[in-house]
């Protein structure tokens, strides 16, 4: 087992009555809230009204229009509003994009300059506004971690902002809220949760606890995502997906494991820095190709474990056969929930592949630490296979 | 899924280099430490020296002699020392008893009166010294929760003290430390972890995530406890046990489940309030009898799930057959790791059974909320069956 630290100081509040607990939780932090959200869906579903009612005792400033793959331009605009309005805390109402943007807004509000500086160098984050999140979908796990991913279209960069100061104080998760999510976003969220898990599970060495936790998350998504797509109103299935999302990205799944550089995320961030595709969809397209690239006689036992414990395959089969079958199953699963199989299906061509491969080493952990070490040629091979 | 809140603000630090990180973690909290431990084992193993070296920059006051089933008399004495010496924080070096006592000491040091008041009424806990723990064995999970169990021999009461103020700031877990643990304590720790899990898993309703997490912990203990007993120096097996302990009692295993009143703990606390037996051993003796009492046609599917997913039994068998087989397996497992099967084997007779059954409703959650509701007669039936 490897040394590790796990620190999860977020109060995770689940239930049909969770949103209504926001006011009491926020009370110690001040009287004026910046409520951040995306498009109109939180208005249509009534969630924004529930949030405002929960914050009836507070002064509220709204900032709408956070986009998918949230942009540093929006972050800077919202941070400026937060400063000018002298808000005491921020409430993110939305999915991963809104929560991620809100983290950057919390840091940006306390920084005199371009929030992109804070993305590029987290040591510049010395203070941040307190953050609360109200979750709308099961995907990124941003409700239970201290990081966000921000896109800069001027430089074609998509990078994480991260600091212990960016943990939400509390996250409010009502699974029924996610019943309004369309199939496309439900599927993309499922792929995101599974990718988070693969990045921590398919590593050189796990242990009985972390492996069991990872397999639990994968089996939960494989069982419940199709139910949510077929029967969007199924609150129990939505709740299972939301729980899987909260624990997918907080570090719990990696306890004691060989550290992973999250290679699929490295590659997907490059793709969506050039093409405005849905993050989970990009991950789902890349993942089976990354798995095939990473499968060697040495790594086969790890994939075979996945085959047996997640897909229920026969442990008496040889590891390479099991591994290949599990990778096929993974691709079939993504197809079964409606995710396209190729980058070209979502409008990505190969014109920036070289620039993407060149950029990763400037902003990411060394991919030499991946299950099968990845160099520039390896990244290009996976991109081309995914095209 | 039931509403729930999960809040785990403890920094969990694992690894062979973990103890050495104590000084840096404690530095923001002051210059003077009360180091609390039990008998001489932490001296013999060199752990106390490691702790002192990690605290080389601090002034240290030692308080030794915390007993198993830690007594409020020791808590009061240590709290007095903490006040008189004006220590800034407390470091618990030991297992569950030492950590539990240290939590009461942290609260007691800030309370002008008998610490037993704080056990009986946690609302009296308004402040507490910061706590750090250095773990020696895998059992109670006290390193990752905000509660401790204290015994009062004057009143024959054993009760929990609990407050969010009692979360350790950080817990330092070096699995190699636990290789010195004798087989008896290794087995008792295994039973304790399993009992924590059963109390959260064998409830009316679980969900895919919590059930998978519980099954992971149970399978981890069932696999690794026998390895630790046969090969005490096996650090990987010790590490798996220690991880299982940390996640066994922190609330993670109960997320979204029907709340449980922890019936086996209610009964065991009564027994060890009258008889100074090892907590985990008492739990292991009671558990199969509680399971048999709780098995009805209505509850059988829950036990059948345990049979299939933990013991690998054939899901095509009928639930009642599976349930009975899983309960037998549970009892056989405890016997296989050297735990006696009967209360009479550990010196407990039936002379206080009526007093125990009468006392539970005065200090515990209503056992009517258990998988099969338990009344006074039910408690007595389980006690008599365990004799």
Head-to-tail CA distance between termini of chain A: 37 Å
Radius of gyration of chain A: 20 Å
**Helical coverage of chain A, percent range:** 40-55%
Write down the domain tally of chain A: 2
Q: Helix/strand/pairing class of chain A, anyone? A: alpha/beta
- How do the strands of the widest beta sheet of chain A line up side by side? 1-8-5-4-2-3
Dominant shape of chain A? globular
Mean pLDDT reading of chain A: 97
User: Number of helix segments of chain A?
Assistant: 15
Q: How many strands appear in the DSSP assignment of chain A? A: 8
Q: In CATH's first tier, which class of the largest domain in chain A applies?
A: Mainly Alpha
What percent of residues of chain A are in strands? 5-15%
List the helices and strands and how they pair.
Two copies of one chain form a homodimer.
Chain A: E1 4-14, H1 22-26, E2 32-37, H2 41-44, H3 47-54, E3 59-63, H4 72-85, E4 89-94, H5 96-108, H6 115-120, E5 131-135, E6 147-152, E7 157-162, E8 170-173, H7 183-201, H8 208-230, H9 235-248, H10 263-274, H11 279-294, H12 300-311, H13 319-336, H14 353-363, H15 376-386
Parallel strand pairs in A: 1-8, 2-3, 2-4, 4-5, 5-8
Antiparallel strand pairs in A: 6-7
Helix pairs in contact in A: 4-5, 7-8, 7-9, 7-11, 8-9, 8-12, 10-11, 10-14, 11-13, 11-15, 12-13, 14-15
Provide an overview of this structure.
Two copies of one chain form a homodimer. By secondary structure, chain A is α/β, with parallel strands linked by helices. Chain A folds into two domains: 11-177, Rossmann fold; 181-386, Dehydroquinate synthase-like - alpha domain (Dehydroquinate synthase-like, alpha domain, Up-down Bundle). The first copy, chain A, is built from 15 helices and eight strands. In chain A, the strands form two sheets. A six-stranded parallel beta sheet of chain A has the order 1-8-5-4-2-3, with helices on both faces. In chain A, helix 4 (72-85) crosses helix 5, helix 11 packs across helix 15 and helix 14 crosses helix 15 (376-386). The interface between A and B is large, with 42 and 42 residues.
